Amino acid sequence: MNKNLAIFTKNLTKIYHKKNQKVNALTNFTINIPRGCIYGLLGPNGAGKSTFINIIAGLVKKNSGVVNITGINLDKKPIEIRKKIGVVPQELNIDPFFTPYELLELQAGLYGVKTKHRKTIQILEKMQLIDKKDSYARNLSGGMRRRLLIAKALVHDPEIIFLDEPTAGVDVELRMNLWKYIKSLCEQGKTICLTTHYLEEAEKLCDYITIINNGKKVLEDKKENLLNLFSKRIVKFDIENEIIKVPHILEKFLKKSNHNQLTLEYDKKEINLSEIIKILNDNNILFSELKTYDEDLETIFLKFTSDLYKKI
Length: 312
Prior knowledge:
By secondary structure, this protein is α/β, with parallel strands linked by helices.
């Protein structure tokens, strides 16, 4: 087994039975997550992301398949694996009658972290909760509770951290701060496995991305490679002189045209921007400004989770 992999699964399958119906939460799910990276799991609700996390965390039993964490088999050494991972769940399940300081101390005790090795104050400072360390959890805002969940997952200094929708319900400024902190954890050598509905979040943070739909892996690659799969680009020109006729060679790329603006959608493999500009110049179509837009991760996600792609 490759010990350079933080997480390895092969043919991982989980079936639920609800109201006498079989639900395939995961079907032959195989994934390789390298150590020291930020790995994104994207997919709609019910895709199987949380099931995958819960199996590795020991909260859900798989039906079949192989799971190895840093080269250790889940079936053989589940307790050792639990010490290696920290999980930030999607649900805000926090005891309301404990303070953040007490909750972190309790969590550290459950993991057997000796008092002299605990970093409770440091973690609370990083999560911007130090001024609330003695407040009851029930009095914290939703964003503060989200940060507290992340803090709880860090008390035993895990090698692998699962973040299930970590910035749901937090404001933009805090989301940016959490992104910065997540990157700093990765720089320390930790492996971050992230599920998110925020496509911008995945695009900003992740090194690798797997798209899941209906319990199956639809697509897996480096983020840059995924973005390069889609070579469509949109360019908008602010036209200085009125366009009487769009040049024939550009007609098939035409998306929108009016007196003072021309919008083209083209494939970068078929024609490049400099060629388009030359065609405009050759036809005396002058422009004062242009803007280009590449397909982003959201476009990719929507394409691969639409009904058209369900059978992929």
